[in-house]
Amino acid sequence: MLPAATLLRRTVLAVCLVLVLAGAWTLGRRMETSTQVRSPRPIPSTIPSTIQSPVQFQSAAPVVSVAQNEPGPSSLPSLPSLAAALNAPDLSPLRSRALVLPVQGATAAQLSDTYTQARAGGAAHEALDIMAPRGTPVLAVEEGRVAKLFLSKSGGITLYQFDPDRHYAYYYAHLDSYADGVAEGANLRKGQVIGYVGSTGNASPDAPHLHFAIFRLGPERQWWRGTPLNPYLVWRDARP
Fold first, then answer.
1. Is pLDDT at 60 greater than 70 in this prediction?
2. Average pLDDT of the residues in 179-195
3. Rg of the chain over CA atoms, in angstroms?
4. How far is residue 91's CA from residue 71's CA, in Å, rounded to a whole number?
């Protein structure tokens, strides 16, 4: 039988060996774990429904855009009260000119305010439609030069006229034809026949009419661009 002292030493050595081996094994596991690369968290393929797309804000000052070299719709349809407010600085000078109604035989009482009516794509009309039989003479609302004779997909046969001061442009569209002698650069007389009511462009063949618009020119005096005004308010007071 081994002496007690020898047995004690062997027991202590065995315990120390076990502890060393256990420590080495633990350290090895930790090093192995630290060297592993964790896979990233998967990114969802769809955006949660609670996230909404940014709101698109539009300018409150409608300006005629350049589209196929003709006035296009403004950015926002305007209510009658808003239209009156936007046109207020121009109404007085335009009314003082005693503009002729551009369709022969038409009266102010027959006019309907079509300026704010929605058209294709939700755009505001920004013009005055005057219904009349095909071939009814169209008249120049005042004196001024013919800025452009233009054929477009939407307006059909059209005519752009500048006022004498080149501050405003008058736009006549859906004409059936021009009157004899009307040419670009020609000076028109107030009340002169410049064309005839029709339905060219995107107008219905069953509803011939004159599409008439007024816009204030910018400093560049471009015949296709300006700030739209409501022609109805020139001849009729705004209604609630």
1. no
2. 97
3. 40
4. 20
Q: Which one-letter amino acid corresponds to residue 53? A: S
d(CA 151, CA 176): 11
Query: Does 116 have pLDDT greater than 90?
Result: no
Is residue 121 within 8 A of residue 105, CB to CB? The reply is: no
CA dihedral 78, 105, 175, 219 (to 10 degrees): -50
Residues 6+ apart with CB under 8 A from 198: 134, 135, 156, 157, 174, 175, 176, 177, 208
Maximum CA pair distance of the chain? 141
Specify the DSSP element, H or E, that contains 233: helix 232-235
The tokens 């990233």 sit on which residue? 40
Q: Which of 10-14, 34-38, 133-137, 233-237 has maximum average pLDDT? A: 133-137
pLDDT given at position 29: 59
For the cut 50, the answer to whether the pLDDT of residue 229 exceeds it is: yes
Measured CA to CA, the distance from residue 199 to residue 176 in angstroms comes to 6
Q: How far is CA 70 from the centre of its chain?
A: 15
